[in-house]
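Assemble and predict.
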Amino acid sequence: MAPMTRYVLKRLVLLPALLFLFSVAVFAIVQAPPGDFLTTYVATLASSGSSISAEQVEALRREYGLDRPIWVQYLKWMENLAKGNLGLSLEYQRPNAELIGERLVLTMVLALLSFVFTWVVAIPAGIYSAMHPRSAIDYALTLVNYVGVATPNFMLALVLMWGAFAYLDMSVTGLFSPDFVEAPWSVARVVDLLKHVWLPAVVLGVAGTARLTRVMRANLLDELNKPYVTTARAKGLSEWRLVVRYPARLALNPLVSTIGWYLPALFSGSLIVATVMNLPNIGPLLLRALINQDMYLAGSILLIYCFLTIVGTLISDILLAWLDPRIRFEEGMR
Amino acid sequence: MSVLAPAVPVTAEERVSVASSWRLIWWRFRKHRLALASAVVLITLYVVVLCPDFFSTQDPEATDARLAFIPIQRLHVFDGLHPSPWVPDVAGKRNLTTLRMEWRVDETRRIPVRFFVTGYSYRLLGLVPTRIHLLGAAAADGRARLYLLGTDRLGRDQWSRLVHGTRTSMTIGLTAVTFSVVLGVLLGGISGYCGGPADAVIQRLIELLQSLPTIPIWLALTAALPRDWSPQQVFFAITVILSLVGWTTLGREVRGRFLALREEDFVLAAELAGASQGRIIIRHMVPTFLSHIIATSTLAIPAMIINETSLSFLGLGIRPPAISWGVLLQEAQNIQTVALAPWLLVPGAVVILSVLAFNLVGDGLRDAADPYSQ
Amino acid sequence: MTTPVLRVNDLRVHFFLDEGLVRAVDGVSFEVHPGQVVGIVGESGCGKSVTMKAILQIVEPPGRIVGGQILFQKDSGAAIDLTRLSPKGAELRAIRGAEIALIPQEPMAAFSPVHSVGEQIIEALTLHERQWRPRGPRLSRAEARSMTVDLFRSVGISMPAERIDAYSWQLSGGLRQRAMIAMALSCRPRILIADEPTTAVDVTTQAQILNLLRDLQRQHGTAIVFITHDLGVIAQMARYVVVMYLGRVMEQGAVEEIFHAPKHPYTRALLKSIPSMNVPPRTLLPTIAGSIPHPLGRPRGCPFHPRCPDAIPGVCAERVPALRPIGSTQLASCFLYNRDEASEP
């Protein structure tokens, strides 16, 4: 495992460099729109009929440091980040860390649940399809998969919400019952969360599940034709045990490498579902921050997304090497 | 297993051995019934893209609050036994407590539907001024109109809006993928053919772009687009933003192909024959994977369509007054509204249909182009 | 004469393809006696590998056994017809690996690349534990390991204790094939099916592997069904030969008889096409006229008749000759030796 450890260490060392690059890019993007938060703020005030004097605006601009050159603003943000301080939200007038904190946890819970759903459903479905190709169930699964891949997840969310509202007179939005929205964390609140989170998790995972089932089916069909399967069968293994132990294991390996982009894609993808289903996620927060040019909040959230993406990739690399000895040894040869 | 060697009947064998590779691909593609049917769907959609106004029944921008939320008028093809299409008339009455218009379908009053009727004026293909539309209500009193897919909250005809949205969404998918292909083939080709520092730089760039969280970055980028840009500018910008990440996958693939091809004997043979580098690339290397690129690109279009639709749905993509499927679905954001007017979800069905068709065609093309892959 | 341990009787395996029906094995019969080495020889595509897969009932779909019997004689009791057993059932699985073991064609691909070779052998040992050791304590992990090390030593693998933890792709071709033999022998099978075990290795290794198989065969008295397209290998290894062409047995008999007095025109042509040291230099090597027909375009009548120099007009193209005895041990399916059958209406 030594070469593997070295590889992981190398990636870990590169992580801050990558994050630095991304922080510059992110800051450039959130800075890009003409005007700043106060321009938007004044416009919002104006549209609601109230107004604010030019002096007051200037005072605020000085207070927030928005009058400084861009690179100074960036350094200030970085300095705070280095101290573990995500800065202050201009709009909410609260520390960003406080705003993001619980929402980040909920984002990760949702993504992870969705991920578990995907794998728990897709892998057995893919194995079954490959073991019974051209059977009725195989055709049915293929059909579901094609439609699943083709449905944007916000569309699925809309249809479910509409169905629940129109026919069951139910609201499936949010992650908590009204009583628990503002309540402090408790066992009851966790139970309430679990009661609500599964539906968004499924909605978020459907497209990925469909894709994974198809890939698993194709991979396994390929593997089932390999000579080592004949060997194992000639050995006297039962069909089920044989498939799970040999070809399924090999068919899974390339899928593990997809975790690297799938998990981050779930983090990012939850943004849309969360907005539609009104989930207390970092997604809707980011959307609002972007529209209102609340740049430190938007920047921090974007950077968190970047961080999660990089970590997701790293995890999948490690998993892949752990699963496939061929890769483990190859790394050593480099 | 040698027994299972490609078993083509002897007569076909000779035909196959002299066919060009494109002809072979077409023969194999033809066997996928679903892919073929999907290709027809896509061609139909692109015909609509060419001249949406011709297929519209009304001006997509015309608003009339009094005509809000008219339900879908079911199109009847037969009037009795005669093939004479008609739709039932709708009559609206304002509910005095909710202040909403309530529409009642009146099957007894039939509005005849005619082909090639005169409607609002437009330019066919942007050139020929005309007033002819494919379908229209041949109404006696001029009041009765055709609402094939109902109207939205501003009383705009959804069918006509959908037709116009189709133009934007289908075009954006195609353009974004074209950009991606150009970038991917160019950079991937340089990376794979030249190698060395160029390869290293491009590979790092790809890795960097691929470790970006796409959706949030897209959102941030589209949010950064100036509010006063024209719909054309926004369209162009969105296309560029979508292909910014899209090219990386293709770039990697092209690079891999070039790396493998550099070692091939036929490339060496061409070099020995004195062919120029450009000629080797264009005449000898690219054709070997061109069909593969086409298949991969076809499979990339649906993702672009879904992305555009999602961004516009969130209000950060294509902006009104421009119309795209995502913009249309924005009308369905409020569940109470959807419960009142479920037909607002129809554009979503069209999204699913087109994405499905692209995927099926792409899969068919991939199988046809590369019979050895699954 | 002993009772045969395996008797294949008019075996038919067909592949149901979209393009049509392929009769990969079309009426094959032969016997294997305990401790005997039977060579099955034929060009590629003649159905020899499919016959072997059929014995273990591991023919992949769309292939299916459509007729015939495969009678396997256990220690005691009546012979069992393997074709009557369910391919996925426990009864047949108890025979695979434990009673009839397979040495597959490509040792490279025949081991799973993500499991160590030792692990794959230990799996076979534990799986059939009750068959090779009906009584006694359950097999412990340590015991299975040490047995595997012993097996590796017995097939001539140096440093066996280290090698069992290797992955197949870390071993050389020869070592891989030895490991495969070790796995096949692990449960002390009655019959060993070796499917071209030496095609994938170089000539020196080939000789070593053949010697090893011969030694092991003598030691354990295992019957071996040896499949190859190499007549030289058959001459070295087998006592009895079955010559196959297009899914049918052309001729079979003791190796001396077949090599010195081949009866069937196909066998004769096959033997003539072996390069020989006794021929003057620059002599053209005789080849068999024509080429193997397409699997879907099998000729009517005797499958060899279009390429046969001695084909009887109006007979060989019409009817299929049966396998008939023509010597002490020799059988051939050819009308040349069955004039009576040939002249029947």
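DSSP finds 13 helices and four strands in chain B.
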